[in-house]
Each structure stands twice: as structure tokens, then as C-alpha cells.
Amino acid sequence: MTEGTTKSEGVITRVAGPLVVANGLAGTKIFDMVRVGRLRLLGEVIEIRGANYSIQVYEETEGIGPGQPVYPSGEPLSVELGPGLIGAIFDGIQRPLDVINARMGPYIVKGAGYPPLSRDKKWHFQPTAKEGGRVAPGDVLGTIRESPLVEHRVMVPLGVEGELTYIEEKEATLEEVIARLRPERSEGTEHEITLLHRWPVRQPRPTYKKLPPDEPLVTGQRILDTLFPVVKGGTACVPGPFGSGKTVIQQQLAKWADADIIVYVGCGERGNEMADVLLSFPELKDPRSGRPLMERTVLVANTSNMPVAAREASIFTGITIAEYYRDMGYHVALMADSTSRWAEAMREISGRLEEMPGEEGFPPYLGSRLATFYERAGNILCLGSEGRKGTLSVIGSVSPPGGDLSEPVTQATLRVVKVFWSLDDRLASQRHFPAVNWLTSYSLYQPVVDEYAGKRIAAGWRENRREALRILQRESELEELVRLVGIEALSPEDRLIMEVARMIREDFLHQNAYHEVDTYTPMEKQYSLLEVVLRFYTQAQEALRRGIELDRIIDLPVREEIAKLRYIPVTQKEVFQGVLDRINEELSLQT
Amino acid sequence: MTYREYLTVKDVFGIKDVFGPLVIVEGVEGVTYGELTEVRLPTGDIRRGRVLEISDSAVLVQVFEGTLGIGRDNVRVRFLGKGQEIQVSRDILGRVFDGEGRVADGGPPIIPEKRLNINGSPINPYARDYPNEFIQTGISTIDGLNTLVRGQKLPIFSGAGLPHARLAAQIARQARLLSTGQEQASGGTEAFAVVFAAMGITFEEADYFISEFRQTGAMERAVVFVNLAEDPPIERLAVPRMALTAAEYLAFELDMHVLVILTDMTNYSEALREVSAARREVPGRRGYPGYLYTDLATIYERAGRLKGKKGSITQIPILTMPEDDKTHPVPDLTGYITEGQLILSRTLYNQGISPPVDILPSLSRLKDKGIGRGKTREDHADVSNQLYAAYARGKSAKELAVILGEGALSPTDRLYVEFSDRFDREFVQQGEGENRGIEETLDIGWRLLGILPRKELKRIRPEYLDKYYKRVSQ
């Protein structure tokens, strides 16, 4: 980091956990980064009252005391953007955890300061713009093969415009000049462009225009894609009590979502979960390219035992990196697990600032802070003359205390997100995973996805989805009835509905994340699976009308075949057709 | 005291305020956050404490052993210029310490090999190795359904009057690692070293553990820290940190596999609440401070394995749920940090089923990585999922039968009811000295699944059904 020399140094007057108060910092602005104490811990100015500057410190403050110095930097908390982000793992303030581990051992020692991106590594820069051409912010100057899956597009930074006087194919480090441009008006100095630049995390990166979303983010999870889909550029939240499978869903999405880039933010969660991601992603293959998933992933990990202020920053660090790749024209998906821990970090800092608390001690600005985060998602037209499109989808998990969804973080989140995947304790304890409750969840993107899938997958997509939801809704009503009068009192038609609902639940919605085939279901197969179950239903209704006993229908051997279909790869189309034929056969021959 | 230490020490006479476990000291310079302090009374008594907050004019100190006898001008406060430390060496094995880390078994003092700050440093997630080695505890509900793996933190959520202590002791006694066939053949591998931290529990309960360790010979490889119910509550805040610092030393410097038992975390959280209330902080749910989650995480997250290190730390925290309510802040926040939970049920216990593990809300998040071919048995995951699903269905059918009578159940549901009843009696129920191998546990599972017709068993892959399933004739 470049530390300014013109701002005056401050002196600490108070220390309370992660909050430090200093004075004498004239010239320093709010949200500026500072270095605190003799250990030079990283901090951020979050309040200025008269001569008193309140600083949240991103590291454990043991050993810091009044009288120690504070060094201003003169710039806001920023992240480094450039090649080398893909495949990396950072903490909440973008310190490279792999480098810290290599240099300092398995524990994160205070004051560890290494640049986030390697200064030594050489990248092969391939220009696409020509000398003499005019370029504006967002225009692509050239490309770098950042990983086998990702082509890094080097863009003209914001506020720079003019004629290219120099650009060259070369092996360049991050700080080497790869292009120069002469500004239009001022005859003054030329701009030098390197592969590295910085961006303040709390400021959204600009776009040309926001567009309404128009295609689904395919996750391969049947209950999500078919019943409650999310779109590219959309927002979703996953609230649920502990043990209901939030993290498994987030990791499934990180593994299988059809985005080009995944940014996974582990915010105040378990260290072992991050270890799992770190160890399994290099092994797991992207279903489309067959390459390791790590080659399209950026990890930000600020686990629960790491300093709380850095947890507050981690969400912004993650989304700024995600926006950077979106600006290159990629489909980016950001998973934040969990936004509740982020909100709690805010609450803790707010408490130390002695701010007037809102609901349950959370600061009153909780809602607006959450909204500014989710609103950074979107389907956008990027800056630059080519009219690139990029998307940034945001999926946040919420951990409501005691599973009570009326708590402030869940409620504030529901006001801004469009998809609600409600995780259910009861389903989880029956080991029905993903434990998404089909009666309470919703997606406001259904029309968009219906239209898309109706054209690309099958015309009956919308009808099947509605029918499935109708059967499940009817089942819950019938269950009430059964609880009062017993199953025997139901008509055969209603009992058939109960049976079919069970098939939808067990053979379609239930999905085993640890089974090699079942873990990912393409949309075509999702359609075929549901189609088979619904075909069974229509034909069984028909058979009932012809006077065939319900028990005989329930005991048909084809039902076991249907249950096995989810483990059949999508390529074996003849198996699905075979089962459809058998349904026909077994149900029509019975007299 | 060395000369260098002498230079960093600051002394001050008299204090300004005393309230609850806290004192405020004025007129001292150069004090830092988190520093260890000593409050010296005229009687010669020394109370230790920690700096919680400092401003130019005043220092807020939390006194571990309580403020009894402290007045405004009868004491001298000394700031030691360092954080709270514990002395460790290989000789801590087999010893008992009090809540201050002092020898409490009447034996000779420890000759320290090194002094370690009890707060530790956060483990870099990049340095973690994923826990995936099966620990056989010999208890079916754990091994079969909520498998414990090395490096996991798996708490026991209990209630007043439930046998959590006996369950924890049984785990400590029987836990073995079965990672390779060779080790399996030689009858298990080396046992775990046990670090036991008692926080605010009764003398009898602490004594139960210690004499249990002594009788089974486990004491030789155990380290015990005891803060009893009558001891100062504030001391409890340091006890789990001392225990984990000792455990980290044993695991990552002496290559041992360490099982840490922390009991009772509810008492710990109450001590935290007491300090928070004395500081007049904005309270969160039920008066617990808003940072309870972060604070608990700094304890629980000290479990795990590290790449390139042989040892490991497995944690079994025990907590009692007030009114058996798992949405109470302490179990709730614990559940969000730990990798699952074992929940004890009063209903089961009253039916005479012991250990009364209620499997439906219990969970081991790391189970899937620790089981299967080469670790336990190929069919383990499927069997366990099927047992869960069938037991859940049996339980809800039983609820229905309570309202409508047995007659209202379909024939299949009646089979599920029989299944869940026998499951409680044959799978969950197990003697305190009964050490079941994993094969035995799975075989009991298959025997019970035999009550159900094959087409009901949708969670099990067909090839395993072919191999293991046998219908029990009615």
C-alpha cells in the first residue's frame, strides 16, 4: 500500500475491542484506511466527531494502547484488481491466505501484510486494440489467459480516455506498463496503463446500463431450477435454522451453477467448510468444460474466529471482485455465506460506537446496508464501446436465530431479494435434502424462466411446474384431513394424489448431493423426470376411472423404475422412453 | 521476573470504581488492550485480571477471581505488559489444574517448556486439512448416524438431569480411530489424549470424570482444568482457552490426537453475560451480548487438523439447554458454529432408553466425508439415510395413531411404527460398557430395515439392497 505523507499522524486515545479512537488525524476522510499502533494493524475510519476519529480495526487489537501512533493512508479501503484473482483465496481485507500460510505458518499472525496479487508473476499480454486507435473507459485493450477457463480482459480504467500511443504484446508483471494513451484535450502527460488497478470496495463499479434479467441461472438442483428458479443477474436468499443445509446448497450452487466465474464469500462461518471448498474444488470438474472448478473460482474466507471487522468488509471485497469480472462481460455468481454473520459484525461495531440500536440491537441502517449490497447484482450492459453484456447474480444465506424468520436480518433481506428458498428444519431431520420447503418458498423470476424454458427445453415446462405445485399444495390440505379422519376416509382419487405427491417429493425434489449422477441434473432431465411422474399420474387417474383398484396401481413394479431414473445420466434417453412405455403398458393392460 | 519483563510492568496505587467483576483504574500510562493485570490486596492476596477497555484517562479491568475485599485505596494494581499465558510441557499430562492454570492436585509444579498466550491466533483456513477420518466411539447412534470424525467439533445438547456426563465419558473411554485395515487388525490404534475443561459444574460431576479417568487409566494421557460452581464465574472465561491452548500444544507440537471435552458451555456464556451486563453493553437476545457468536467461535474454531501436522483436536462441548429449548441463544449459536450436534431427549430417557440420543434433530455435518468404502463400509451412507427417513415416518405415524387409534393406519404405516419402536430398543439403547463395532451397528440397522418391504427403501442403492437386505417374515 502507498502511504500518504501529507496527512498528519494521529495518536490513539481509546481502545475497546476492535474499535480504536484516535485524534490528530487532520486531513483524513471518513472510510479512509489507516495503520494502527506500533503493530501497524489495518483499520478504517468509520466516524469523525470533532478531533476524535473512530477506527474499526481489521485485526485483533491485543497489545494496542493509548499513546501509540496511527498512520493515515489517504485512500479508502480498496481491493486490487488484475490477473491472479482466479483460484486465489483471500481474507476479508484481501490478504492472500495461501501466501500468509507459506510465509508465517498455520496461524494468522497480526500485522501480516502481503500484496494480494503477486508482483513477480509474468502474464502474457495479447493486445486486441491497435496503436493510434481511440479508446474510452471499459474498452478492452487486450487479453490474458488467466486460467484455462478464464480469459482476463484488460480494460481501460475509469477516467482515462484518448489515443493509444503505445501497446505491445509482452510478458508483463502487474506493475509493468502495457499501454500508453494521450488524452484528447489536455496536451499534458500521457496515461500509463498497467495490469493492476485498485477500486474502493464500498463504491459500486459503474455500468453503462442495467437491463431486466432474461435467462435462468441453471443450478442443476431440481427443486430450484424447476420450482423456484433464479436468473442470471438476479438475487436470492436462503434462510434456515442450523443444520438445515444452507451451506450445502451454497456449495452446490458454487459447484454447478452455469456461471463463468464464481466468487464464494465465507463470511463468519466454519473454517472446516472453507477447507472443504479449498480441497474439493481443485478436484471437482466443471460439468460443461471438464476442467477443475477452482479455475473459475475466487474465494474470500473470513471465518468466524477471524477478526470481526474484517468480516464486515469481506462481503464488499467479494462483490467488488465479482463486479470486475462482470465488467469484462462474464456471467458471475456470488455466494455469501452467511449474511447474518455480516449483519452481526455490523451490530458489534455499532454497539462499540454506542450508536442508538434498532431492532434486536442491530443498527438502524441494517436494511439500507443490505439493500446496497444486493442491488449491486444485475444484468448489465458494460462500459466500453463493444456493448458487452455481463451479469452478477447474488445468493446470500441467512442464519436466523432459533430459525425464527421474523428476525430483522431475514425480514430486511426479503424486502430486496426476488427469490426466497425457505429451508425447513422438519425436512432436514427427515433427511430430505435439499430441505427447501415447497409451500413457503417463492421466486419472482418464474415468468422469465417459463418463457426461456418453454422455448429451449419443452413447451410443457410451465404446465408441469404448475401441476407439480398444485399436487403438493393439495397434499398438504389432504394431510390435514388425514390427521383428523384417517387415510381410509379419503377417496381413491385423493389417495392417488397423496401417492403422487410422495413420488414428486421422493423421486424428484429429494436430491443427493453426494451421489455422482444425482448431484447435478440438467434442465432437460429435470423436465423428463417430472414428465414421467406426471404421466404416471394422468394414466393412473385414467385407470381409476376404468375401475382398477388403487392398491394395484400403487404396487405396480414400474414405480420402482421411476424411483431409479434420477440416477440415470441424461444421455441415456432410451431409458426414460422405456419407463414411459412401461407406464403405458402396465396401466393400460390392467383390467 | 526478568529484567525485560520488569521494564514493561506498570504499578498504580488505588482505583476509582468497583462494580460487579470490574474495576476502573486511573492515572496509568502505556497500558495496552488485553493486558494481564494483578490486583494486590493488603492481605497479600493477588487477584488476576484483564484489560477490557482503555482510554487516555482510565483503564477498565475485569478481575477473574471476583472483587470481594477490593476497596478504593487499599490495593495496588500491576499491569504486566503481556496477555494471559499458560505454561506447558509434556508433564502437563496426568495433571489437574484450577481455573487459573495453577496445579491443583497437590503435585509438584510444572517446569515449563514454553509459555503460550491463551487466546491463540486464528487458524488460517488455507492451512486446515479437512477432517475425514472416522472415529469409532462404539455407540451406534453416533457411529452409525451421526459419525464423529477426527478434527470435528460435535457438541452434546443436553438438559438438566440427563446423562450427558456418562455419554461424554463413554466416548472418551471408547473412542478409537479405524483408518487402515492393518490398524483395525491389531485391535484399534492409539487412544486419544483427553483435555477436560470443567466450567461451573458441581464437585460431584467433576469428580465423576476425574475418577472415571483414573479408573480406566485414561488419566495418564489426560489434562484436567477445573472451575467448579463455587469458583469465581469470571474465571470461566479463561478456562476453555487454557484447555485449548494445552490441546494445541499436545496436538500440533507433540503430534497427539486430542479429544477436548468442555462442560458446561451454558455456564461459560452466563459468565460472559455477567461481564457484559456490568459494562452496560447493549444486550442481544435474552441479555446475552451481541458478540456471543464471535466469542463462542473463537473457542469452537480451535478444533481441527492442520496440513502437514500429525495431531488433531476433536471437540465435544457439552451444554445444558434451559428448559430443553434448542432455540435458546447458547445452543442456537453453538449449532451455527459446530459441525452438528447430538441432542439428548428427556422423553427417551424417561422411557428407559439410554444413551437417550434423539436422532432426528441430531446431526453430524462431517459424516459423509468420514464414512463409506475404505473407511467404514460401502453401504453406510445409504443405510443411515434410510434409517433416518424410516424412523421419521414411523414417529409421525405414531403421532397419528395417538389421535386416531392404530386402526387408522395403513398396513405399511403399521410396519413403520414397529420399526421405530424396535429402533429405540435395539439401536439406540445400549449399555454403558457396550462397545459396538461399526459392522455390528450397521448390521443392527439392516436387521431393523428388514421389517420394511424392499420397495419402501428408496434411499438405498439397488446393489446394496441386493447384497445386504433380508426381509423379516411377519
Task: Tag the structure with descriptive keywords.
heterodimer; A: 591 residues; alpha+beta; Elongation Factor Tu (Ef-tu), domain 3; OB fold (Dihydrolipoamide Acetyltransferase, E2P); Rossmann fold; ten-stranded mixed β-sheet; six-stranded antiparallel beta barrel; 16 helices; 33% helix; B: 474 residues; alpha/beta; Thrombin, subunit H; 3 domains; 15 helices
Quick overview of this protein structure:
The complex is a heterodimer of chains A (591) and B (474). With 591 residues, chain A is an alpha+beta fold.
Description:
The complex is a heterodimer of chains A (591) and B (474). Chain A has 591 residues and is of the alpha+beta class. Chain A folds into four domains: 10-76, Elongation Factor Tu (Ef-tu), domain 3 (Beta Barrel); 125-195, OB fold (Dihydrolipoamide Acetyltransferase, E2P) (Beta Barrel); 209-456, Rossmann fold (3-Layer(aba) Sandwich), CATH 3.40.50.300; 461-589, Orthogonal Bundle (Bovine Mitochondrial F1-ATPase, ATP Synthase Beta Chain, Chain D, domain3), CATH 1.10.1140.10. In chain A, helix 12 packs antiparallel against helix 13. The model of chain A is unreliable at 1-5 (pLDDT under 50). With 474 residues, chain B is of the alpha/beta class. Chain B has three domains: 7-83, Thrombin, subunit H (Beta Barrel); 86-366, 3-Layer(aba) Sandwich (Rossmann fold), CATH 3.40.50; 380-468, no CATH class. Chain B contains 15 helices and 21 strands. In chain B, the strands form four sheets. In chain B, strands 9, 11, 13, 15, 16, 17, 18, 19, 20 and 21 form a ten-stranded mixed beta sheet that branches. In chain B, strands 1-7-4-5-6-3-2 form a seven-stranded antiparallel beta sheet, with no helix packed on it. Chain B has a two-stranded antiparallel ribbon with strand order 8-10. Chain B is elongated, with a radius of gyration of 25 Å. Mean pLDDT of chain B is 90; it is low at 180-188. The chains are: A alpha+beta (591), B alpha/beta (474). Chains A and B meet through strand 1, helix 1, helix 4, helix 6 and helix 9 of A and strand 5, strand 11, helix 8, helix 9 and helix 12 of B. Strand 1 (10-16) of chain A pairs antiparallel with strand 5 (46-55) of chain B, so a sheet runs across the interface.
